[in-house]
Every structure is written in structure tokens, then in C-alpha cells.
Amino acid sequence: MADLGCYSPSFKKPSDVLRMRRKRVRSEGPERGPVEGVRPFSPGPRLNAPGRTGGGGGKRRNPFANIENTYNSPKKRALFSNSDGHDSAPDARKTLLDGKPREERDDAATSLREELFNTERQQHLERTTPDSVSEDVGLFEEDLFESERSAPVLKSPEAQRDAAPAEVCLEFPADWSLKTRLLFTSPRSFSWAEHPKAQEEAQGLSSHCRAQFSSLPPHIQEPRGCAELRCGFHQCLQYWQHPSLPWLPLFPRIGAERRFSGKCMPWSQDPALQQSLMSDWSVSLTSLYGLLKARLCPYFYLCSYQFTVLFRAAGLSGAKGLSALLSPSTRGLREAMKAEGIEFSLPLLEERRKSRESGRAEDEESLSGAGLSENEEEDEDEDDDDDGGFSWLKEMGVQDKIKKPDAISIKLRKEHREVRLDHRPESVVLVEGSDTFTLINFLINCKSLVAGAGSQAGLPPTLLAPTAFRGATLHTLKARTVNVKTQVRSGYQDVCSLEVTGPIMPHTLHALTQLLRPAQKGEFSVALYTHEPTAVLNVPLSLTSDPEQPDLGRCGLQQSSVQQLAAPSMLGKSALRQLHMKDYSYSWKS
Questions:
Q1: R_g of the chain computed on alpha carbons
Q2: Contact 325, 429 (CB under 8 A)
Q3: Closest to 299 in 3D by CA, of 284, 314, 286
Q4: Minimal CA–CA distance to 511: which of 455, 562, 577, 553?
């Protein structure tokens, strides 16, 4: 192995290492006494050093030490020996005692790090005996410089002033999905949101019914003593619902069979009572559509046991007229809508088709650049269409042995593709313009809108709206505050939380964030729990060529909320999951 180029003379086999350890143990025995200049295996003072104490109070051996920590290692000799072989420890000790930087630098961050380094070296000298300074200083410097390299670089004041300012986002995108729970957290207390006084609660209800909104100051010093803040919070928790059955949770409806099981439902076996409920529900739905068309109601939700429909007024989400999104849909429902003459589209499928066509166009351009003529490309496409994509059988010579699918099989395959969309986000249906009125009549007369069996049998769908309508009942979202302690690196930190539960609509989320902005000094976070079947309702719509500000001044919402809801949707088929505000600037995750 001595002939090999990679062989190191200082390399020792494991057996040699063990033999050396045994010799050291024997040399430290009481009968032979310590050997001059020999130090223990662990880093520390020599055995005969003046500062070393004997007996049980001595420093115990470090079981994790290795040979590289000893003074005779090549790394240590390179650090503390010059070319002539003389020990340079006195020079190193002098450098440590002086406490001066090796070279002067103009950078403020470097000077700060060097000052910290010199301070640490001085403290290390005070704790170390003179004989062990020259041996331990190399390891100390190496560890300290390693921590210095891994530490974050501090910027000078000039560099901080020259750095580009962070982007400030004063608004977050509108989320049209329904939420079941909001969890706000902040380092500041939410005590102002609990136990409203009777006068504050009455003022909040009155302001909601009259659509009156009081402006809050940008900075609130004492939120608990601000009556406008407490009234505004209670006003944000109000919503309108039909039907209203106090013993039944009427939201959510999709996949909620367990929540309805065991409840008292006198209409399940009474057809006359079911007919009465449906007649009252039809009147409420017609009233809501009239308010929507007159722009006195911005939007409303229809939640059945199979799907959810979102109706929006003209101008919201960048649409040029009334719009309705239905999700999820089935092939039978789509066929029934076609039979009623309702024109609709599948926006997610159309978007996928457009992306495929654009990719195909790019492929055709590359093929034409390779030398294929347009006639040849058309012939290839026609061949693929004629034989149903089985042209490869001719190349193998087995086209006569394989039976091609007939027209019925091809039709069944296409129907199978349509059925595969059922109950998926891609099955979302978009209805626009005057077809929304036809959709209202279709839903009123649709027998499959109400479950015929099961725990929700005979129960009409739930209607949710931000404004009052005929037959609606005013409800209040549940809110409660909790103060907890979370573990951090330095110990425990107080974290205040505010939980809001119920059918939370888009305007409610925006109004609550507008209140929390001044109340929590522009610092809070919120976790949003989405009703997953409604996440796809954020799909973008066909936009107007010249977008204008919608005329929704009498719809019952704040002007800031209307502006947010009027912007085109940018979340696609996803929904907001987390929302953070730091220094009055928003950031979010979907």
C-alpha cells in the first residue's frame, strides 16, 4: 500500500488505535505515574498541567472525541507550526490577547462580526490555562469561524436603504367558495369581539338590515372600548337563510347524511307537508332572482343534497351579465338541462381543449418546418378519423384479424367519457344571461332536486344570501375567542385566536378582515376551512371587452367588498387555504 498514491503515512488501522489507547491507560496508572507532555485522549489540558486537578474532580474523558482533536494531528500542526518547525503559539496568544482584527475593513457588518469574534476569544482565554492555550486555540478558532460562516450576513444601514422595498399587497383575491370555519390568530387579544352589550348587538342588527356601514379609524388604540368596532363585528356575522329549522343543520348539505340521521322530520312521510315546503321555497327562490336581476342582491347560493349553484349579479367576477355556476353535475342533469333549452358551457373542459389545440398548433408548425406539406397533414388526420386511430394495425399486417368498433361502440365510448366527468370539478356548468331565468324554472320543477329517500328526504335545498328576501330568516354566525400558549424556541408565547363557524360567504370574509386590520394593528393570520364541493366556483368567466364598475350601490354590501368581488377570479378551481397580514400587507396560499 506504500506504493499507492492515495496512501497516507499517518493512517492507522483500528487495531493500532486500540493498542495506542491501552498504552495510554497503562501510562496513566498509579504505579508508573504520568508521562511528561502526554495529554488525555479528550481535548483539554495536559496531564501534568498546573490547572489540572487529580482524583474524582478531574475532567472525564470525552467519549465522542477522535484522533483529529489531539495536538499531534496534521491539521493542528499546520495551524500552529511554521515552516521551521517552531511553535507559533506565542504569536497566536499575542493575537488573542490584543483582540484586534487582522485587517481593517470598511464594511460595518464585517467589523461587527470581528468584534464579536475577539470578545469570544478573550472569554475563552480567561477560562483556559496558559499551557493549553496554544493547543486549544486552533480548534476554538475553527469552530467559531465555522459558526460565523453559517450565520446570516448583516447588512449595513447604507445597504438597507439601497435595498428595494417589499411589495405591499393591500387586497386579496375574492374567494367564491363557501367556508365552514375561520380561525383567526394574532399576538394581540380578541377580547373586543366577545360578550357584546345589548345596545351594541341591537345597533349591529339595525345597521345590517339598513345596509349602513360606519367607517373605522385606521388605528384603534383600545379596541375593547371602541363601540363602532364591536357593532361592526356583530353586523358582519349576520346572514339570511331559507328554510329555517332550528333543530336541523341546513349547511352543508352535500355528504351530510349523518348529521340528519336521527332528527325529527315530520314531512318525510307526509306528501302534503312536502308540497307546502316546496311551494314556500319556490316563492323564496323567485324573490331572490328578482332581487338579483334588479341588482339589490349581489349573489346567493342554492345548496341541495347533490350540487351547489352560485347565482351572481351582472358585473361581479368580471362577467358582462347574470351568471350561474353549478357544481358538481352529472350526465343526466346536463341532458335534462339541454332538453329544457338551457344553453350552458363547461369552462374547465373548454380551457383544456384550448390548451390542447394550442399545443397541436405548435406541433403542426414544427412538422411543417420539418418539410411536411399541408395536404399530407390533412391526409394523416383524415386517416386517423376514418379508421378510429387503428392505422397502426395496417403496419403490423393484422387489420383483417382485428374487428373494428362500430358506430354504436364509438358512441358508447364518447358517453363513457361524459360519465367520467360526473361529480368531478371538471363537471362545473356555467349558465349566462337570460338562460339563468330558464335555470330557475328548471330547478323549481326538477323532481330530482329533493331527495326521495334517505335522511334528507323531502327537504328543500338551502338558500343563502347576504341580504333579506321573501321567507328568509336572519341568522348569526357563531364566534368565540380562545387564548392559548404555543411553544417557541425561547419558551412559550401567548397566541390569541378567534373562531367563526357557519356558512361563511365571500363578503363576510372580506368584512371581517377589514375590521381586524385596525383592531389587530395590521398583524393577524387566518386559516380557512372550505366546503370542498364549492372550491371550483372560483373558475374564471368570459370577461367583458370594456370592464366597468358594476352598479351595485344598493346591494347591501360595503363598496370595498363590491370592488373586490367585481374583480375577475384568479384562483381557478382552487380556494384560499391561508391568509396572512403582516405590516398591513396581505399574503395567501391556495
A1: 38
A2: yes
A3: 314
A4: 562
Q: What tens digit of pLDDT does each residue of 523-548 get? A: 999 999 999 999 999 998 866 545 55
Give the C-alpha distances (Å, rounded to integers) separating 386 from 14, 23, 177.
77, 91, 45
The Cα 263–Cα 315 span in angstroms is 41
pLDDT band at 158 (very low <50, low <70, confident <90, very high): very low
- In the predicted structure, residue 64 carries a pLDDT above the cut 50: yes
CA distance 17 to 65: 13
Domain boundaries, the chain: 61-163, 242-347+424-474, 360-418
Show the cell assigned to 99.
483582540
pTM over cut 0.70: no
Pull the grid cell for residue 305. 343534497
Question: Out of 101-105, 123-127, 289-293, 525-529, which region has the weakest mean confidence (pLDDT)?
Answer: 101-105
How far apart, in whole angstroms, are the C-alpha atoms of residue 471 and residue 300? 14
Q: Which long-range contacts (CB under 8 A, 24 or more apart) does 351-356 make?
A: 352/426
295/305 Cα distance (integer angstroms): 28
Structure confidence at residue 346 (pLDDT): 92
Q: Are residues 509 and 237 in contact, defined by beta-carbon separation less than 8 angstroms?
A: no
- 208 touches 470 (CB < 8 A): no
End-to-end CA distance of the chain: 61
Angle at the Cα of 23 from the Cα atoms of 20 and 27, rounded to 5 degrees: 140
Residue 216 makes CB contacts below 8 A (sequence gap 6+) with 226, 228, 229, 232, 515, 518
Beta carbons within 10 angstroms of residue 364's beta carbon:
14
Strand 299-303, strand 462-465: pairing: antiparallel
In the prediction, which pLDDT does 72 show?
52
The Cα angle at residue 97 between residues 92 and 100, in degrees rounded to 5: 90
Q: What does the pLDDT read at residue 353?
A: 78
Which pLDDT belongs to residue 223?
92
440 neighbors 282 (Cβ within 8 angstroms):
no
266's CB contacts (< 8 A; 6+ apart) are 273
Instruction: For residue 92, name the pLDDT band (cuts at 50, 70, 90).
Output: very low
Residues counted in the chain: 590
Higher pLDDT, 186 or 100: 186
Half-sphere exposure of 503 (CA within 13 A, CB side): 23
Question: H or E segment at 483?
Answer: strand 478-488
Q: What percent of the chain has a predicted confidence (pLDDT) above 90?
A: 46
Contact 58, 46 (CB under 8 A): no
Question: How many whole angstroms from its chain centre is CA 523?
Answer: 17
Residue pair 201/234 in contact (Cβ under 8 Å)? The answer is yes
Residue 181 banded pLDDT, cuts 50, 70, 90: very high
